[in-house]
Structure of IclR family transcriptional regulator:
Amino acid sequence: MGKRANNPVKSVVTTFDILQTLRRLDGAGVTELSNELDLPKSSVYNYLSTLEQEEYVVKEDGTYHLGLRFLDLGRYVRERDDLYETARPEMESIAEETDELVNLLVEEHGQGVYVCRVRGDQAVNVAAGTGHRVALHNTGLGKAILAYLPENRVDEIIDNHGMSADTEHSITDRGELKDELAEIRDRGVAFDREERIGGLCCAAVPILDLEDRPIGALSVAGPTSRMKGERLESDLPELLKSAANVIELNLTYS
Amino acid sequence: MGKRANNPVKSVVTTFDILQTLRRLDGAGVTELSNELDLPKSSVYNYLSTLEQEEYVVKEDGTYHLGLRFLDLGRYVRERDDLYETARPEMESIAEETDELVNLLVEEHGQGVYVCRVRGDQAVNVAAGTGHRVALHNTGLGKAILAYLPENRVDEIIDNHGMSADTEHSITDRGELKDELAEIRDRGVAFDREERIGGLCCAAVPILDLEDRPIGALSVAGPTSRMKGERLESDLPELLKSAANVIELNLTYS
DNA sequence: CTATGTGTTCATCATTCCCGAACGGCGGGT
DNA sequence: ACCCGCCGTTCGGGAATGATGAACACATAG
């Protein structure tokens, strides 16, 4: 897991352990959390009390919930990047034109994070929303990004996160993935044919900065029935590429 | 500031102090933060290192940024509540019909938090977005909520947060506010005539649960020039009330 | 009226973090 | 080139501080 810091502040770690557990088990109580985390009840209680006092956690009838204050931090994070603001209108017009689901993903710490998602009229329903984190190796978006990362970085990411197989079409071999990444660089487009979710395909293009480093990726996703032939292999890629181009241009002048 | 917990975990407090400061001063370095917070550099450094290791903070060329992981927590918080999902479509149709800015606010810890915002075609630009926190006493949304809170709770909130005057129209007298809250209960609608932002007016209605406790408030906001007469005092309130009704109904059956 | 489940309080002790001071690298004056 | 100032980073010792289990108050159920 990489190198570790010299003086890790333990309480910070436990704080976020508690918060993350609380996200999973919304409305949990002190005891439930203490069991889940193998921490003494009193410790959990102290943390929760402090968090409540600081308004990061809300207590309702003895059950705890994450506080709205996180919206603040989360919103800020999203808007920090011009990427969101710049990409959003382009995504909307793609959604309107294709009626499908349009996604924007960025890489952080070797994982993909959905930053924005716009739904066309026929858009499939996928559970994941803004902020959701996914592995990079088995999504079109992730591969589009990986293709433009330096090779040692790609290796590092695979070392750290492995190559899980979410469906039978997932790529699980490192060599195979690298071959595919090379193809993606050639074509400028990545495809995902049911690699992450059965029945779901997508086309994805990277958004690059002036030095061709990936700052994100843009995709159109839909059911396999609609995502095939000309449309998947040529129409959508063209649409995405020109959108990515506009975004890249706008980003460099701001 | 209310009663304090018995064993406040100091590190939790400083952790979030650092994070909040980092939100304000995005891209700050160790020294800048340490000055801002009156903490030794090394302490700040230790915290930041841990936060980085835990992926809540990203370091770029020695400058720090909030990590996208907060999107995760923030998104979750917003979606926790059915309120968002239920209200969103109603808000969109109001935005379309009025061309103005439609807001959804909930109360937490005596403050108002914007949970959702939908923009009509003519919508004014207001800086505040999702997650933004405001005082309750001088916004239409806040007053709509206060009007349906028990009186002792209202007093508590004023005690804790005071009654700041953001514009010359802001209400700063406790008695005056209470009179207005009574009026709001009578009418079922709250108005904000440039009380928080000069030139900006709004009409707001509360969203109530079965026991008439406020779970949020809905508003239409626009420039004073468009928000007056019939439209402000009767058309918009009617529209808002019926939307709130639909939301309230949907919420009770889910 | 016990029995088990909460959330909460409290005092103890040693762990853990606080913090000053020193290091090393970078960049910009002069 | 030099030095100075500024930055992020490292280190270690001492003491504040959070971890902890046991006990408490309260509810709910058998």
